[in-house]
Amino acid sequence: MSVGRVLPLFSIAFAPLYAAAMYFNIAMFVYYPQANELHWHDRPDLAGPAMYWYGWIAYAALGGAIVLGLASFLPARFVDRVALRGAWIAPLASILFILYVIREWFIH
Amino acid sequence: MITTLLIIHGLLAVALLGAVTHQALSVWWPARAGARGFGASFRAVRGAAYTNAIVALYTVTAVVGGVLLYPTYRLTVRVLLNQLRLNAANGVFEFKEHLVAIGLGLLPAYWYYWRQPLAAEHAGVRRALTAILALIVWWSFLVGHVLNNIRGFGL
Question: Out of B91, B101, B129, whose CB is closest to A102?
């Protein structure tokens, strides 16, 4: 099966993986802008805020790439059927989940 | 330097906003054959022609905003928003950061379903993906604009 055909599965996996990474704060790495340093783990001794966003994206991208690789072994018809609906339902559901998670910003 | 980058980010965002709006309207509200006027002309574009430009503009805009500008935002603007107790402003930006990330992940599927020749059986998913991407771009543009008005230039 061509790589192009399984591309939508990357998107299907990416969105919920990103939402999960954000919710559980599973970041591949952490960036400290004030110190301009990247670290694999939290470094509370460093000055300034920690930025997890890049680490969440990297985690979701890696997960999406793994799903992409595995999906290339699946039957084309199955991939097409899953991708056709999942490609937009998964991101939309993830967006709604994230909005629910961060609702505190708007309530208080 | 940051002000220059902010202006470049804004200009890229304007181009992206125009492209994705053209494309979204062309699939959700296509112009009738022979219709004239500004509105009909705006919608009467070949949506597929915008795809690569949208993917490139989205990626570059996200990199300029997310990699080059975002650290400065965290160190200066967000601190100010916290001090002013502007929680909603902080919240809308948080949502923007998550939307932009999900939009980045959406691009492979979006690009795949907009490949030419367009498959008729993909029309529904194309419409849905374009609508989500347009929503993300519009939200990000408006939030970026409003937050810039709160903090202003001269970071």
Answer: B91
Domain tally for chain B?
1
- Is residue B110 situated within a structural domain? yes
Domain membership flag for residue B62: yes
B109 with A83: CB under 8 angstroms?
Answer: yes
Kindly state whether residue B82 falls inside one of the protein's structural domains.
Answer: yes
Q: Which of B92, B105, B112 sits opposite A4 (nearest CB)?
A: B112
Question: Looking at chain A, which residue has its C-alpha nearest residue B125?
Answer: A84
Q: What is the pLDDT of residues A33-86, one digit of tens each?
A: 999 999 999 999 998 899 999 999 999 999 999 999 999 898 989 999 999 999
**Shortest CB distance from A99 goes to which of B95, B107, B122?**
B95
Which range of residues forms the domain containing residue B62?
A: 48-151
Query: What are the distances in angstroms from CA A31 to CA A38, A41, A56, B9, B99?
Result: 5, 9, 11, 22, 20
Residue B132, min C-alpha distance to chain A (Å): 7
Whole-prediction pTM: 0.93
Three-class DSSP category at B144:
helix
- Domain membership of residue B55 (yes or no) is yes
Q: Residue A32: which H helix or E strand, with range? A: strand A30-32
Residues of B in contact with A81 (CB under 8 A): none
Which spans in B49-86 are helix H? 51-63, 70-72, 78-83
Contact residues on chain A for B75, CB-CB shorter than 8 A: 33-34, 48-49
Measured between beta carbons, the chain B residues lying within 8 angstroms of A28 are: none
